Amino acid sequence: MKSSVLVLSVIVAALASASGPPIGGAHAETTAEVLAVQVRSQGLACNKALQATRDTKLSKPDYDVWVLKCDNATYRLGRYPDLPAKIEKLSDNDAKGSKR
């Protein structure tokens, strides 16, 4: 009995160490990047995702609402699981017209 527990412990330890962070040049995608991909896949422009903020007032169970700020525009996305997002363009963020 003790030997089977020991073998099981070794297997669990090996699996845990194998599921560590990725090696090499891989990087984890941020929420903003994932939302930007969805915006682009639905035909809208998001050149560079800058920030994503979850709108807790409009979000509901199984329906997340996010505000995505891109370098060229700001969008509000409503997302049900496994369905295309409802995307509303809130503003243009053109550098030409803005003062910095």
The radius of gyration is 21 Å
Report the uncertain regions: 4-20, 96-100
**Main sheet?**
4 strands, antiparallel
What fraction strand?
A: 25-35%
Would you list the SSEs in sequence order as H and E?
Answer: HHEEEE
Subunit organisation of the chains: single chain
How would you characterize this protein structure?
This protein has helices at residues 2-18, 31-41, and strands spanning 49-54, 64-70, 73-79, 86-92. The chain has 100 residues and is α+β, with helices and mostly antiparallel strands. The chain has a domain at 29-95. A 4-stranded antiparallel β-sheet has the order 1-2-3-4. A hairpin with a 6-residue loop joins strand 3 and strand 4 (86-92). The N and C termini lie far apart (70 Å). The relative contact order is 0.14.
Topology diagram in text:
Layout: H1 2-18, H2 31-41, E1 49-54, E2 64-70, E3 73-79, E4 86-92
Antiparallel strand pairs: 1-2, 2-3, 3-4
Briefly characterize the structure:
By secondary structure, the chain is of the alpha+beta class. The protein contains 2 helices and 4 strands. The chain has a domain of 67 residues.
Key traits:
100 residues; four-stranded antiparallel β-sheet; disordered C terminus
